[in-house]
UniProtKB/TrEMBL annotation:
PANTHER family (UniProt xref): PROTEIN YHFA
Protein name: OsmC family protein
Provenance organism: Hydrogenibacillus schlegelii
Domain of life assignment: Bacteria
Length: 148
């Protein structure tokens, strides 16, 4: 995989993925010299994690022959106070709505995504604590898996 970034002035860059061809605008906050012309790099890291696990969930639920009417994912993260200010905690709040969507199967899909399929999660896993929530109900990634 490869991406290229081109400097657009000050702290603004435009990145383009070689595989997808899509462009992403990246900038720093105004207080550190940016002009707010793009997403912050650490936001993009969370977008990547969220997109990776959300796509997995859709695929896994489809394989389980489960459907949903709505799906959103909110991610909150805490960063270290000192540089390099890495993420120390990430909380993912999955919101799914559907008429026949057993919570234990959604939990199973999340576990499969985070433990087996999501390469973004695997890349981040060693350095952080992740917590999960489905429609307001928190659960531990360490809880025993429920078979689908």
């Amino acid at each position: 995989m490869r991406v290229q970034l081109a400097w657009e002035g000050k702290m603004h860059f435009v990145g383009r993925g070689e595989t997808s061809g899509h462009a992403v605008s990246i900038d720093a906050a105004p207080e550190v010299g940016g002009e707010n012309r793009g997403a912050r790099p650490m936001e993009l890291l969370l977008h990547g994690l969220g997109g990776c696990t959300a796509i997995d969930i859709v695929s896994i639920l489809k394989k389980m022959r489960l459907s949903f009417d709505a799906f959103s994912l909110d991610i909150e993260a805490e960063r270290a106070a000192e540089h390099p200010r890495r993420f120390t905690r990430i909380h993912l709040h999955y919101r799914l709505q559907g008429t026949d969507l057993p919570p234990e199967k959604v939990r199973r899909a999340i576990r499969l995504s985070m433990d087996k399929y999501c390469s973004a999660a695997a890349s981040l896993n060693a350095a952080l604590t992740a917590t999960f929530e489905i429609n307001g109900e928190r659960f531990s990634a360490d809880a025993p898996s429920v078979e689908a």
